[in-house]
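Subgroup meeting minutes
Present: P.N., E.W., G.H.
Scribe: E.W.

1. P.N. recapped why we're keeping a running log of single-chain structure predictions: easier to compare across weeks, and new members can see raw inputs and outputs side by side.
2. G.H. added today's entry (438 aa).
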Amino acid sequence: MSAVVDFPVKAEARDYLACFATDPNEPGWLGRRRRQGLTRFAELGWPTRRSESWRYLDLSPIAKTRPARPSAPSIDAAVIERMALPQAGQRIVLVDGRFAPGLSTLDRVAGVWFGSTAQAIRDRADLARAVAVATPLGDSEAFDALNAAFFSDGFVLEVAPAITLDRPIEIIHLAGEASGASLHTRSLIALGAGAHATVIETYAGSGGRYWRDDLVTIRIGERAELERVVLVEEAAEAVHLGEVVATLGAAARLSNFALLLGGRTVRHEAGVRLTGEGARCTYDGAFIVTGRDEANIVTAIDHAAPGCQTRELVKGVAADRGHGAFQGRIIVRPDAQKTDAHQLSRNLIIGDRAVIDTKPELEIHADDVKCSHGASVGDLDEAAMFYLRSRGIAEAEARRLLIDGFLREAVETVGQLDLHAYLLRRLAHRLASLEATP
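Output recorded in log:
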């Protein structure tokens, strides 16, 4: 069934309205949710630079596109093996937004449900509803609504109370030659009380001007712990818009790290709500932009219970005409006494044409708290550069060494050594191709 609305719609929504159709094989409640999302997108349209949260990002690459589905690509299993984490336990591969069973590795584990979102819709209505009706906390309502209308698949991980996963769960989002296509995925991670899990999500593409709209909902129960790593290495002309929405129970812990290394326009947005007493959140990240690339990290950490703790460290490097931005907000509600929250943004600019904007914010409504934030933007240390050059190290190599040392501090916040080493290898690969202007 196609969508029909009886009110004026934004011009950019007309093509999406025209191509929208619900799947008769999906449950009725999901069809209604999809129509609600499309209606909301028709009302809102794309966000503009007039919105504070979107002021640093150019959305013209997707404003000029029309909704298109990717063709069925042929992905060599060797490509996946080169990208995959050798120490991972189970793995889901999504190609152009859809589950690829032949490239995935799924095993039955007691107390764990792990599968595609499409499978959850068929077999686990409770989890599917949690995916479909998620209410994001950030400033991406238009993209959230469009995602709800058009998401094709995703992944769902449910870990029962007191279950510990010894090996990381891996999700690989791979785009083929999906020129002009829009890829919408919607996923869920749910940990029961006392559960422990590690998840790594990789987003990569082999070419094309596709754009990705990804939403992950996270629910962490009392005393549960989740370590999540996000690696973005999209194709050179791709647009990546990723959002995570997390809720933490009492004494729960979330450790999240995002490394943004590739894509024409990349935005990583997080809305985290600490609803239980004593919850802890570590939300770190790093990005590199060169050429005319853009990367934004946008976070909102909302403390709604007493005795909670947050640590944020975000580092950025911009070279050539690259433009990076960090917008981070820490909120402390009136009842969230004894909050301990610290936020730091540190950035490095290579050359005269690169730009990095940074805007850390504190919004405090309680009086017994310990909160701070800071930001810095600077050039390479001339004294350190001179020292390396005086030891016979070539200028380009000296520059790479200093940039690597600068970003390692953020990468080293990842606790698991296997993931830590994997990220450093990907970082080294990116730095080897870094085109810096002295």
